[in-house]
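Lecture 7, part B: from sequences to assemblies.

Below are the input chains for today's worked example.
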Amino acid sequence: MLNRREAALSFGALWTALVLPASALAQATPTLTWTPKAVTAEQARTLDAVAETIIPATDSPGARAAGVPQFIDRTLATWSTPADAAAIKAGLDQIDRDAKSAHGAAFAALTPAQQQALLARYDRESKGFFNALKELVTVGYFTSEPGATIALRYDPVPGDYRGCVPLKEIGRAWAT
Amino acid sequence: MANLNTRAKAENTYDAIVVGSGISGGWAAKELTEKGLKTLVLERGRMLRHIEDYSTAQTNPWETKYPRGRLPQAELDAHYKVQQRTGYTMTEYTQNLFVRDDENPYTETKSFDWIRSYHVGGRSITWGRQSYRHSPIDFEANAREGIAVDWPIRYEDLAPWYDRVERFIGVSGQNEGLAQLPDGVFQPPMEMNCVEKAFKASIEDRLGRRIIMGRAAHLTAPTEEQIALGRGKCQNRNLCIRGCPFGAYFSSNSATLVAAERTGNLKIRPNSIVTELIFDPAKNKATGVRVIDEQTGQQTEFYAEVIFLCASALSSAWIMLNSTSRRFPNGFGNGSDQLGRNVMDHHLGVGASAEVPGYEDMYYSGRRPNGIYIPRFRNLGDAGSARKDYLRGYGYQGGAGRGGWDRPMAGVGAERKAALTQPGPWMFRIGGFGEILPYADNRITLNKAKTDKYGLPTLTFDVSIRENEKAMRKDMAASAAEMMEAAGFKNIRAGDGGYSPGLGIHEMGTARMGRDPKTSVLNAHNQVHECKNVYVTDGAAMTSASCVNPSLTYMALTARAAAHAVEAKKRGEL
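Predicted structure of the full complex, as structure tokens:
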């Protein structure tokens, strides 16, 4: 089931890449629907695209729909140490600079494939700011209501404990 | 004026005073009120009403203020310098259930992690709920090995009181017929998961060590008495530390204080810091206690014929050290000079974890608030279990589970997301709980130079583990690795993660029981040798530590002492 879905997705991506020029695929710069507190509007647009690239919408909502960019902005404003917050913000600026020098456009305006390739490189190189950003996206997503209840399974009051259950009966990992 | 004073004195006079409302104080309150004594419970912290004040019990993961409910480091460092050292207790969920260190200072000559809860119910709200009896071996160890002093009681003295406590609080578990871990009165045990069952079979077969389900104070089949108190069956949420809205695990708030309240004989006074015992040299009795109101700073006296100190080992000792008089210049009932000495805890932070191959198609449902237990298998009296390198022993707590969404996973994008929505590999972890011997120079002292915001002296800690514990820790790591290997697990990581006294949150020994007033503070009934109407029944009373979690023993000692006090009072002996 999962494999068939992934095959269909990659075939579709290949098809459009062959037919359409790259510029036609680039995304219009999205308008923010929220007001950032810790980051600039430009950083917020990058953050929004970075979060959605790390955890995209699939058969469950992605990071954007789960409110992860807002979660990270709030975290940087109220929870992170000033040094950690500064490193993340500088990292967002660097992502945008790297996008512009490689593709001539802001990160938020790149194609999903370009976005994915750029972030995968940071991940392989284990860049400090990116590890921290990736962790915030992951925590923000899987502790969000869509992340916990749709992508994962969540049961606030299980009632019984059953120690040996076939995984297929549960289907997904427990959120908590 | 005289009339007014007489009336005020009458209004502040009870049959019994209990200092502290935690796991021991709750039991003292229940037993004394049920036996007809008008009882005043003095609690230094605020009121914490059962269920309605468990403000985070229903908080969903997406409703927290901070990521995963973890507090900002700056806030932890400013207010919770010590309380954060456990790594798990001090979160957004439990922030109101532990003290602020900046408001409750003490001095560490050597590092001591004093984890405190000041509210009605004390740490019975946040305890680990593991409930084991001390064994005959534990009560005999000091005498047999010539360590410290002998316990003035034996297992048989306490056994009926363990029965009584277990029946009332509700302990899920199983009888195993082990000499080092006596059987008890249990509700049905919780279930092991697939990997734990396989581990049990493999270790019992290959190493002959018993692997059992943890015994935990959770209701799995509530009795009529428990249902009548408003308690229900465990719902397997594993959010116990926030307070249980089902009253499914035992706490003072869910059980003993409810029972005490229903007698009509209970008065609870929160925000009441007991500063000292009042001693009447003419009667050679304590006549009451002095209290500072935590909110107004006002000083009051309360009077009773029977006084139970249940403030926790260190705080009960603090009250006694701070109660000086011509008769007791070095602290209340401290003719032995043992008050504040022999501080014990359980040393932990050593064990092993490993990856479990296979079982990919198996999972579990529900969050069991309990784990497996590996009872002590060293120095049990037979040649096979004897160690030359250390005395006493240890047990392990732990269990198996599958990795969650927070495990490390390379990559970005849809493939990684899909992988994280499935459970990760099975992991197995066990951590040891080791016995610490009583050392006279492991002690707390009163520091009059450093006072708290009420102007009261604070404590100074000079406590450390010694060669016996260090040798035991090496064996705890090695035996943990040995079991992981015997079970066929992979990527085994075993070792010593370090430990500071206090981190076990099992403080004991500061006013030990004993047979001789010259070498101990309390007698066989938890009475202060030198002042029989004062009973101390919390961790302070412990003559040795065993390696099992101690709360069940505090409760049994308290119930036994309360029955003694009521009878002694009737006979006019107090």
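Note for the exam: Chain A touches chain B through 54 residues (CB under 8 Å). Keep this in mind when comparing with the next example.
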